[in-house]
Amino acid sequence: MKRRVFVFTIGCLLALLMLQFVSSVSITRVSSTPEEVIQGQTVELSIDVKNTLEYDVTSLNIKLNLGENVPFAPYQSSSEKFLDVLEERDSKTFRFRLIALPSAESGIYKIPVIITYFDDNNSLTAKNELVSLIINSEPELRISVDDSTALIREMENALSIKVVNSGMSGAKFVYLSLAPSGELKGVRFLSEKERYMGDIDSDDFDSVEYKIYIKEDAPKAISIPVRLKFRDATNKEFVKTETLILKTYSLKEAEEIGLVKKKSYFPYIIVIILAIAYIIYKRLKKRKIKKNR
Description:
Immunoglobulin-like; five-stranded mixed β-sheet
């Protein structure tokens, strides 16, 4: 019986110690409006703080440590909030208005939070915690083909496609596919239809070249479906589809409208004339030698 009482007493003491250890003033919930912010946009950060201690705390201070590695700044607000008293078992929501710096890269950013308060013995307690905010904007990828591109029937053609990122965030793991659903009438692909382009930063571009053969029976305008797959800074996947409308020409038509240079026979004519002149010269020289004999 004594042993049971002893064990029970020890258990109660440990429980009290554990309760004291886990009890504190701490962050219980964090939210932001909007959940993701783009560069140059403001965001409201809400932090719920709860006092799980068995007494009131005073001079509660919540400070966001917006250092060099945190691309946020206070906007029409301070980065510190104060509360005279936070009663035991009570909660309080602190709201901060921030702005994402225009030069910030997309990503998830950890913001250190410093919590200080005075306990029931008037001793200062300090805690360090972390909250996170997301800066992200969808990459804006645009597909283009050079206006001078000419697809000649019954010939192998080089088709160069440029992908431009005009958005404020970079695109990762970019894949470009031509006619992803199947073959096209009058077109034979001589290179892989899906090409990996890697990463395309904001305000940058990349190009990829395909080898295609345009058959004789190809229509005068062919529609080539194009699919772009890529991910943003938070690894969210995007799929974008477009259709390229490209004209095809016979070689004669392309030469007539100046898309390709007409084949010049002038060098061949010069070579033939020089060859004939050389033969005539050799024969005349041979006759002169015979005559002098």
